[in-house]
Batch of 3 targets.
Target 1
Amino acid sequence: MTFELSSAIKVLLLALFIQDTSADIGVHCPPGTYKTGYGMKECRLCPAGTYRSEGMDMTNCKPCKGRITISEPGSECCRSCPPGTVANKAKTECLPCYPGTYRISHMKVCNRCEGNLIQPDIGASSCIACPAGMVANNNKTECVNCEAGRFRSDKMSLCLRCPGYRSISATEGATKCEECPKGLIANWGKTACLHRSETAFSKYNFSDKCKRNTINAESGGFAPCKECPPGTVANDEKTECVGCPAGFYRTKYMLLCGRCVGHLTYTTGGAAECSECPDGQVATWDKSGCVNCPTGNYRSGTLRSCHICQTNTEYSPTEGAANCLKCPPGTKANALRTACVQCPAGSFRMDHMIVCQPCRGSQFIASQPGAIECEKCPSGFKSNDGKTQCVESSSPRHIY
């Protein structure tokens, strides 16, 4: 008789435990939806720019990663932007690449067209080669003619000055130079043929011609050539030094202005070296300045790009943040990490916890959102399914 009574008590206690556990678990949300806390019975769509797949925590939708993934509301996964586009900051739509840039499927960002390749349109997945006699402009958006006195063939990367003292190109866009007739020599600009008596070259020693990044402002080139200082290069006529454009630099050991590299370096023009963006910022695509990291992101120290705030309790409400802020107890960060929201009723979060936890056991509730601890129901009462209020217990907890 004692054994049978003991078995009955065990069965009753097991049934009560299953009831309490099922109350804690609540409804199962399908992929693409989430609930505001453990034990809640309402499933909501994940916001655009976020997702939740099967097996993930049902109380959180994760933001799409990288620069080329987006999602619609209620997504169980993120999808990649098509070639020629990248995701906007909110990861809700794909935006076309700027003119002068392109993106193919395996690229993570829009890349600038290199060399003599251009792209005049937006949303491109490839670049167009400039024909002979032309080169790409600085913005890589159009092909411009080589200046008179210069030429470029298909195999050349730059417009070069006609060589020697008898070759010229009289018009823009030349693919090769023409030879002066016998008895004539080229003028200084290599644009016309002159009699030797008509030009200062009659006394000019061609071995003393100014070399790259050296200039001579005097007519005829009789004075010594002067070297251009760092941050500048000689103009085509070798008569003055001009500053490197924004986004470029030149040290004394470089022949040409070089582009700043990496996500953090920039120049505003005429620079001998690149500067680094301060914490909370990254360089613009053309390396001409710095822009703030978007809300929900931060950058500091050794980080080379803007990163989204990592944990469920960190957020960044303003642009240009060097560090993320911590949500106070009773709250958690929203999906985009831009603000703190209260833990839903029925759950709580202490300062050391990284997620809002549902009240445990059958006698604990959190009647209001934003709780930092759970309240205990009085004797004879138990918590409802949502852990939001105490209800009168309909069955005894123990049988003696």
Target 2
Amino acid sequence: MIVKRGSVVIHSVAKEWGVGKVVEVNEIRATIRFNDGIIRKIVSSHFRSLKPADPSSYLPAAKEVPPVKPRRRTASPKTKKPSL
């Protein structure tokens, strides 16, 4: 398959990713935004794993709010020992 920007594809091995839209292509890799919300880079040697998909089956993932990382506990300030 010839991978072009804007085409809609499905990965024949990783079907759980859903349908993806090609957002960038170069001679080394294609950047694809999949329905599961993850952008993946597929190297050109694996382009044969990509199959054309029905364009109406691509639904961009809803914008998700990034998860809030828990804050680290800060150590209590150390008291300085008086110098002699």
Target 3
Amino acid sequence: MSSDQQDISNLINGLKKNLLQFTDNYAKAVKNGADMAGQQIIEAAEQLDQPTDIPASKLIAALKNGVRHAGQHMIHSGIDFFGQTDTTASGQKKKKKKK
């Protein structure tokens, strides 16, 4: 396999790895956000003696908190991903200089 073909193969393998890592982080973020929202919904539903509009507002707040939590998790994952990409790119530049 030529050097160019090997570089392309390495690039594709890296993209696959990064895509799998991203989808795993996304799934974890959504699950954690849903778990957080679910817990808040359960807590609101346990207080059945309140007027109907109060649990509804708690439900909406719980959903917002869950989405916010998932978004924050994805932002942190994105920052980590780009930090690793930058480090990897720097390593590749150093390798090319050695040739």
